[in-house]
Amino acid sequence: MRCLRNIAGIKWQHRVPNINVLLRCDIEGIEAMIIRAQLRWADHLARMGDSRLLKAVFYGQLKTGARPASRPMKRFKDQLKYNLQLCHIDPRSSETRAADRSLLRRTCYNGVICFEQQRVWTLQEKRARRKAEPNVPVDTSLASFTCFTCGRSSSSRIGLWSHERTHQR
User: Could you state, in order of their start, the residue ranges of all structural domains in the chain?
Assistant: First the structure.
């Protein structure tokens, strides 16, 4: 993002959010680029011949052994299924889509566009909600924190904490 801001001539002092920088430059986010590359690679694997080692490893299952009892590490397949769901693509239809490359690319392209639009919309809504909240200044004179040992009052909790340390010596 720093390089993109530099190319676009947007300084950090301008306080422009990352989403607006991406929209100004007409570029999708890095997450969408990674998802697009992952989907293209998975679909390339699906089109490979069954005798290829990469396809055998990707679609293969171990006959013996078990994954650990704690939370297992994520595999490429797990992340691929999650990304397919984010892009609103049915993971079960990947084999049938692989035969038609144009349909496959169109599906992946539209899915990633849908994901990016949803991500941008979510971030803009989140920022709008955060900015719409009233900024009520906290009056510290009303808040009083009193020491239980000597009765001294402090205007902040951290001030009371540092004062109470003097009683521990």
Answer: 2-52+74-132, 140-169
